[in-house]
Amino acid sequence: xxxxxxxxxxxxxxxxxxxxxxxxxxxxxxxxxxxxxxxxxxxxxxxxxxxxxxxxxxxxxxxxxxxxxxxxxxxxxxxxxxxxxxxxxxxxxxxxxxxxxxxxxxxxxxxxxxxxxxxxxxxxxxxxxxxxxxxxxxxxxxxxxxxxxxxxxxxxxxxxxxxxxxxxxxxxxxxxxxxxxxxxxxxxxxxxxxxxxxxxxxxxxxxxxxxxxxxxxxxxxxxxxxxxxxxxxxxxxxxxxxxxxxxxxxxxxxxxxxxxx
Length: 261
Fold this sequence. Notes:
Layout: E1 7-11, E2 14-18, E3 24-28, E4 34-39, E5 47-51, E6 59-60, E7 63-64, E8 68-72, E9 82-87, E10 98-104, E11 109-112, E12 116-119, E13 123-128, E14 132-138, E15 142-143, H1 148-156, E16 162-173, E17 186-198, E18 207-221, E19 224-238, E20 248-250
Parallel strand pairs: 11-17
Antiparallel strand pairs: 1-2, 2-3, 3-4, 4-9, 5-8, 6-7, 8-14, 9-13, 10-11, 10-14, 12-13, 15-18, 16-17, 16-19, 17-20, 18-19
């Protein structure tokens, strides 16, 4: 019979739990609401710090009922995914309506974190290889139209020397309320956007440029007509341009962006 021994160590304001395997570690936030489990190098240990200046994703009367957390190391992609576990309590919505979001500091959007690896009425666990600032948020169903006119405009404005591009799309309500998802933050629309490059392939390039386009429209959010601002964020992979026999183009086709009321 094998016996597992756990040692608890208080370091500053964060509790660490080390298993018999020195690389397998579990780190918990000071309030006990977030736990990170995974493999970390001794030179870049797992850490959880509460973020006080991030916009809360779920709030009531302007008072946050959940927090944002910066989970480190967040400078590089992890070699092996870690598991982030949230304790679900004091929520304004049911546990089934809640998701974990990560703030993308390039696009300035909140991305939903997938996959979900464990779930109950009291906890939610996701797996990720990218750390940073995380928080809870209410999932919303957005009826997404097609954006062919906007995508065409983006391609026309491509910088000289581009060999690839990726465009992601996010939304924010026109009149944000503290009781609504995001409270003014841009929420990325999953599976929406376009990409391409030389011959339709996203070439890596040697440098990057970025551009942003916005449109004010009315969309169905949870089956309610809602005025939102859409943000189209594009990363341009830069090189020496495309050869004549491999023209710069999108890899997909899209429809028409609706006109806002």
